[in-house]
Design brief:
An eleven-stranded mixed sheet has the order 1-2-3-4-11-5-10-9-8-7-6, sandwiched between helices. It is globular. Helix 4 crosses helix 5 (about 170-180). It has seven helices and eleven strands. The chain has about 280 residues and is of the alpha+beta class. It folds into two domains: about 20-120 and about 265-275, Aminopeptidase (3-Layer(aba) Sandwich), CATH 3.40.630; about 125-265, Aminopeptidase (3-Layer(aba) Sandwich). It has helices at about 20-35, 75-85, 105-110, 145-160, 170-180, 225-240, 255-260; strands spanning about 45, 50-55, 65, 95, 115-125, 140, 185-190, 195-205, 210-215, 245-250, 265-275. Strand 9, helix 6 (about 225-240) and strand 10 form a beta-alpha-beta unit.
Length: about 280
């Protein structure tokens, strides 16, 4: 089997997870993608327990075939992938867990996929009245106005260090969604010295507040901004009734989240064909 990609540090703490909470975290992970269903240019295809998403972004991690649970059968799945991704020359990735990957081995072999990176799924019990301290020079806004929504996505893109314009199809779609789904999805923009420098996003499904798009501009990292942006998204979830916070961590973010109290409950595996697309940016979660 091909080589393994970026990994978090060894010795990470393990969370105690029942099957129900695991399923809820999987639902939250999927909601990031399926929440755009019906948006022009975005395709969501559910088939045989897998979720196939094509976003219009020419970057593999933004066109995932998601298989977090072991499928009962793969009949017709390869044909579906060819029609949606391969025949349209769309770069894509397969997302699995340690539980689902063995059942997907025929698919991995058929498309000559190699595991490019891994990312731990982490969960945090939201205490009734947590009171984390934020950097004194950071002012965090809940993003609601159209102009600030555009600033949010500009900063998020720069924080990911991807080429300018690459995520435009994604950003244009999410501008409208951000304004329409205030309870289920919240975006937060951090300002330092009056300038926008950091982002985070909250997705609520049931009792779970998922935290995504945690980014900080390169020149102002290591000042606690990422931790503060993560707390803001998680605690806003608690404010609307969530009891758990969930995220998928990058190698850069993992030690930060572990220090906050997040614990790993499973590992996501990202598979791509050769030549491999550039790893999903390490500044995002």
């Amino acid at each position: 089997m091909p080589d393994e990609g970026e990994r978090p540090p060894e010795g990470m703490g393990e969370a105690s997870m029942g099957p129900t909470l695991r399923e809820e975290c999987h639902e939250n992970f999927l909601a990031v993608w399926t929440g755009l269903e019906g948006t022009p240019g975005f395709v969501v295809d559910r088939y045989r327990g897998l979720t196939l998403v094509r976003t219009g972004v020419s970057f593999g991690p933004f066109n995932p075939v998601i298989a977090l649970d072991r499928p009962e059968t793969l009949d017709g799945v390869a044909e579906r992938i060819r029609r949606l991704m391969v025949d349209r020359s769309t770069p894509w990735v397969l997302v699995t867990t340690a539980d689902s990957a063995p059942a997907l081995a025929p698919l991995i072999d058929e498309f000559h996929l190699g595991r490019r990176r891994t990312s731990p799924g982490m969960v945090l019990e939201l205490a009734p009245s947590p009171s984390p301290s934020y950097p004194s020079d950071l002012d965090i806004h809940a993003v609601t106005e159209p102009e600030e929504v555009r600033v949010f996505w500009r900063v998020a893109t720069e924080g990911l260090e991807v080429p300018r314009g690459l995520l435009d199809p994604w950003m244009n779609a999410l501008e409208g969604v951000t304004r329409q789904r205030a309870r289920a999805m919240g975006c937060y923009l951090g300002y330092a010295a009056g300038l926008p420098v950091a982002t985070s996003m909250r997705i609520v499904t049931g009792r779970v507040a998922g935290v995504y798009w945690v980014t900080t501009l390169k020149d102002v990292r290591r000042r606690g901004y990422g931790t503060a942006m993560t707390w803001r998204a998680a605690l806003e979830g608690a404010r609307v009734g969530c009891t758990k916070s969930y995220l998928s961590a990058s190698a850069m973010g993992f030690p930060v989240y572990e220090k906050m109290g997040y614990r790993t409950f499973e590992e996501y595996q990202y598979w791509a064909s050769a030549p491999a697309p550039k790893d999903s940016p390490s500044k995002s979660s």
